[in-house]
Amino acid sequence: MANNRLLSPLKWLVGLMLMMTLFACTSKPRTDVDYDTSYDFLQMKTYAWLAQPPEDAQTTSLHALRVQESVDAELSRRGMTLVDSEQADVLLAYHLVIDTKYNVDNYYSRWGYRSYHRDRVGGFGVSNTRVREYQVGTLLIDMIDPVKKQVIWRGSMSSRVKKNVAPEERDVIIRQSVVDILAPFPPL
């Protein structure tokens, strides 16, 4: 009977730790937003796209189409209208950058004699280094004042790029990224 009383809090604690670990692993990438605090964002009802820079080897016109369709859908849901650039209250641009990053781990496997004196360590050991390459994608969305030609709002998000993803899943990933980036717009 005493063992059952001890196991119940232990099971609860292990379950709590497992849930915390799962929530930590499934957290969303953070968005970053910056804007001109003196600008009246509530006046914006229309927008237009600026000409985009030429694509590079890592981004394609499919990415561009997904980003633009997602932004158009989100701004339309918020009541904004796509118009010609001469009539727009704000101009939009986006940048999609894919960077290669490296994760380097050094670890030592030590065996043999080791002295516990601060100034002397002896024995045999092997140093190992593991380098892992991965890609990080960053999506930036800029809103530009058409008169001053200055950025008045910028939102961005970075996350690790998944490999071997189906086109339907890429649509969902980009759509959700755009929704998350535009969530704090307009600033209040």
Structure report:
With about 190 residues, the protein is of the alpha/beta class. It is built from three helices and six strands, in the order αββαββββα. The chain has helices at about 1-25, 60-75, 165-180, and strands at about 30-35, 45-50, 80, 90-110, 125-145, 150-160. Strands 1-6-5-4-2-3 form a six-stranded mixed beta sheet. A hairpin with a 4-residue loop joins strand 5 (about 125-145) and strand 6 (about 150-160). The longest helix is centred in the first third of the chain and has 24 residues, at about 1-25. It is elongated. The protein starts with a helix and ends in a 6-residue tail after the last helix. The model is unreliable at about 20-25 (pLDDT under 50).
Highlighted features:
188 residues; alpha/beta; six-stranded mixed sheet; 3 helices; 6 strands
Provide a quick synopsis of the model:
This protein is α/β, with parallel strands linked by helices.
SSE blueprint:
Layout: H1 2-25, E1 31-35, E2 46-49, H2 61-77, E3 81-82, E4 90-111, E5 124-145, E6 150-160, H3 167-182
Parallel strand pairs: 2-3, 2-4
Antiparallel strand pairs: 1-6, 4-5, 5-6
Helix pairs in contact: 2-3
Strand-pairing-aware structural class = alpha/beta
What is the count of β-strands? 6
Strand % is 35-45%
Number of helices: 3
Give Rg in angstroms. 25 Å
Mean pLDDT: 80
Could you give a short account of the major beta sheet? Answer: 6 strands, mixed
List low-confidence stretches.
22-26
Q: Spell the H/E element sequence.
A: HEEHEEEEH
Shape: elongated
Give the helix level as a range of percent. 25-40%
Strand order of the largest sheet: 1-6-5-4-2-3
